Amino acid sequence: MASRASKETKLGVIDLFSGVGGLSLGAARAGFSLNGAVEIDPHALSAHRQNFPTTIHLSESVSKLNGAQLRQTFELANGSLAGIIGGPPCQGFSSIGKREISDPRNDLFSSFFRIVSEAKPKFFLAENVPGILNEQYDHIRKKAFSYVKDTYELLRPIKICARDFGAPTTRTRVFFYGYLKNEMDCLEEENFKPPAHIEPVTVGDALKGLPLKIKPNWQLEEHGWRIARSQGRKYFHVRLRGNIPTNVGDPLAVEKMINESRASGCLGTLHSKKVAFRYDNVECGKTDPISKSYRLDPKGFCPTIRAGTDSTRGSYQAVRPIHPTEPRVITPREAARLQGFPDWFRFAPSKWHSFRQIGNSVSPILAERLLYIIRKALGD
What we know:
Helix content: 25-40%
Structural class: alpha/beta
CATH topology of the largest domain: Rossmann fold
Number of domains: 2
């Protein structure tokens, strides 16, 4: 079912496979209007709706959609769609997964490009894991690109580490960008290089201002609202509290942040005394031999936060990093900061779904920088 939203604008975008909204937030902060979001996971869709309350939301498999449906559902006239963005499922291509050629989720990568060819936006930006570039997936990429190669100028895949764009994580992903030459300025791979004077943000920088002492019995959503301050003046820190686009943000979360300096998601984890003792003795930058949890180094960067598996694949929780100074794994709010989300951004009430949403997302810090480059190429 689709929920009604705001009117179209000339710089409207649609986010396919939107998840909780990392790319969506980046687009909104870059100056685009998020006309629509498509997401089949009900928990991710619910959280996305909280953070983007005026966007039209559609719960449907992208494989069952076409360009005409998108234009009708999201109330887009011909020529009014600036871009289609999205991160098709990557589990079938990931180096930590089974990498099965027959994984049905692999076909959704082609579905993204098929819809682009039908909806005809001025540009598209798709994100995936580096594993998709492996030779064994050549046929999948070839099929996907066949939909757009005669119409769009398609750049070579661009591999980007979020750390190089001001996020506190080494998460590395591949972006596929294409555009209509007669609709916007030419962009090349060179345009998407990291900013010349990037301000590195370490784990310690990112976590400053969040509570250190998290009680294990803080298990319910209402327990997770805790004092969260922004301590720094870097690009990253400014975006923890500021730059809230029009019609974006859950009103309750924004109010609590502004009036009380509170953020959600500071939830505890029940560790046995034996596990807590073991975690307390793991050195920063090292891994616990039993749980395989990595202890974050406050002077370093966070490795890729994993999402775990969904209910169709056993609902396994991903291994969570250990806090740099406390004998516990990190909270959802700490994970959100390490991924580059602002303190007013909300996730699912449960830790499991929160971590899935954060682990599956594009860093909004990175997304904003990339989409701002594209926004400038569109001109006025």
